[in-house]
Design a protein that fits this description.
Layout: E1 2-6, H1 11-23, E2 28-33, E3 52-55, H2 61-69, E4 73-76, H3 83-88, H4 91-111, E5 114-120, H5 146-165, E6 169-174, E7 177-178, H6 187-196, E8 202-204, E9 210-212, E10 214-215, H7 216-229, E11 235-238, E12 243-245, H8 246-256, E13 265-267, H9 282-288, H10 297-310, H11 312-328
Parallel strand pairs: 1-2, 1-4, 2-3, 4-5, 5-6, 6-11, 7-10, 8-13
Antiparallel strand pairs: 9-12
Helix pairs in contact: 1-7, 2-4, 4-5, 6-8, 6-10
Length: 337
C-alpha cells in the first residue's frame, strides 16, 4: 500500500509516520510537507531512510496531482492549527485548511484514490463546564475561531465531494492531542519545557477550561482503524475519555517533574477561549473495535514528560522565540503565584 501523508513533518503527522513505519511493513510512506514553522524535518530523522519526503505545499495542484496519482491512500493531516495564531492572522488558515483541502479533494476525485481527512473536535464549539453532554457524530457544528471555522469548512468540503462526486473518503474529529514532537507553543509541551528551563508555567484565565486529552499514538491507531475498517462517507470521533482541566494539567506536569504543584502563574485569558471539549467515541469503539493504549491521562503525560526531558536538542532552539512571541502578544501575569 502506498500512502501519501500530508503534513507528515508536523506533530500528529510525524507520529503517524513513525507508527506506520514501525507497525506496517507493507506500507510505503510518502510525506508532503511545506515545512512551515510547525513542520520540522528533524521529527522524521529516525525514519528518514524508510520514507520519501517531498517539500511542497498542498495548494500546489500540479505537485499534489502527481503525488496522489502514485498513491493508494491519502491521509490529510496538513493544517494550520494554533488558535492564538489564527486570531492574529486568519489568512494562512483559510489558505491551507480550505484551499489545500479543496486541492487534495479534486486530485483524489480525478484519480479515484481513497482519502482520510483529519479534523478536530473544535468544529463543534464548546460545552458548559456543568453540561454532562459530549460531542458525537450528530452534534451540530458551531466553530468559534478562525482556526476551527476553517477546519469546519474543510470537513464540509469532504462531505460534499463524497456525496456529489463519489470520493471515497472518511473523516475523523479528534480531541486534544499530546505527545512527542509537538511544537512547544502548544499547551502541554510549553508547560513541560518551561519547567525544564526553570520558567514558571503559564495558565490562561481561571485555569478551569477542560480539554479531552488523548495521546497522539492512540489518535493515530484510531486513524488506521478508520482507514482499514471505516465506512466510506462516515465520520468517526476519536477520544480517550481524558477530560482534565488546564489547572490540573499544569499541576500534574509540575508533580511529575518533582516541583510544587502551585509553582505556576495565571496570565491573561485568550479571546473566545472555549470552556470545555468532550468526545463520545462510542461509534469508533463499538463499530471498529478500537481501544486506547493509554487508559489514563497521567500515564500518557509521564511518557510525554520523559520524551521532552530526553530530547532537549529537538526543542531547545525554539524556546526563547516561542516565549518572546507570547510576551509580544501581551501575555501578562494576572493572579497570585
Amino acid at each position: 500500500m502506498r500512502v501519501l501523508v500530508t503534513g507528515g513533518a508536523g506533530f500528529i503527522g510525524a507520529n503517524f509516520v513513525h507508527q506506520t513505519v514501525r507497525e506496517r511493513a507493507d506500507v510505503q510512506v510518502t510525506v508532503l510537507d511545506s515545512l512551515t514553522y510547525a513542520g520540522n524535518r528533524a521529527s522524521l530523522e529516525p525514519v528518514a531512510q524508510q520514507i520519501e519526503f517531498v517539500h511542497g505545499d498542498i495548494t500546489d495542484a500540479e505537485l499534489v496531482d502527481r503525488l496522489v496519482a502514485a498513491s493508494d491512500v491519502v491521509v490529510h493531516f496538513a493544517a494550520e492549527s494554533h488558535n492564538d495564531n489564527s486570531l492574529g492572522d486568519p489568512w494562512p488558515f483559510v489558505h491551507t485548511n480550505i484551499v489545500g483541502t479543496y486541492t487534495l479533494l479534486e486530485s483524489v476525485r480525478r484519480h479515484d484514490v481513497r482519502y482520510h481527512h483529519i479534523s478536530t473536535d473544535e468544529v463543534y464549539g464548546d460545552l458548559e463546564l456543568d453540561d454532562p453532554g459530549r460531542f458525537s457524530e450528530s452534534t451540530a457544528y458551531n466553530p468559534s475561531s478562525p482556526y476551527s471555522s476553517t477546519k469546519a469548512s474543510s470537513d464540509m468540503l469532504v462531505r460534499a465531494w463524497t456525496r456529489s462526486f463519489g470520493v471515497r473518503a472518511t473523516l475523523s474529529n479528534c480531541s486534544n492531542n499530546y505527545g512527542p514532537y509537538q511544537h512547544i507553543e502548544k499547551f502541554i509541551p510549553r508547560q513541560i519545557t518551561n519547567v525544564l528551563c526553570g520558567i514558571r508555567p503559564k495558565l490562561y484565565g481561571d485555569g478551569l477550561n477542560v480539554r479531552d486529552w488523548i495521546h497522539v499514538d492512540d489518535h493515530n491507531s484510531a486513524v488506521w482503524a478508520v482507514i482499514d475498517k471505516g465506512e466510506i462517507g462516515q465520520t468517526y470521533l476519536i477520544g480517550a475519555d481524558g477530560e482534565v482541566n488546564n489547572r490540573t494539567v499544569v499541576e500534574s506536569v509540575l508533580d511529575v517533574l518533582g516541583k510544587s504543584p502551585d509553582a505556576f502563574d495565571f496570565v491573561t485569558d485568550r479571546p473566545g477561549h472555549d470552556r470545555r471539549y468532550a468526545i463520545d467515541s462510542t461509534r469508533l469503539r463499538t463499530e471498529l473495535g478500537w481501544r486506547p493504549r493509554y487508559q489514563d491521562f497521567r500515564s500518557g503525560l509521564e511518557a510525554t514528560v520523559a520524551w521532552y526531558r530526553d530530547n532537549e536538542s529537538w526543542w531547545r532552539g525554539q524556546k526563547d522565540a516561542t516565549e518572546q512571541k507570547y510576551a509580544d502578544a501581551g501575555e501578562k501575569k494576572t493572579g497570585p503565584g
